[in-house]
Amino acid sequence: MTADKGAHGSEGAGEPGRGADEGGRERQSGRAPLAAIAESLQRERRRAGLSLAEVARRAGIAKSTLSQLESGTGNPSVETLWALSVTLNVAFAQLVDPPRPRVRVIRAGEGVAFAAERADYVATLLASCPPHARRDIYLVSVQPGTARESDPHAPGMIEHVVLSTGRALVGLTDDPVELHPGDYIAYPGDEPHIFRALEPDTLAVLVQEHH
Question: Which end of the chain has the smaller Cβ count within 10 Å, N or C?
Answer without folding.
Answer: C
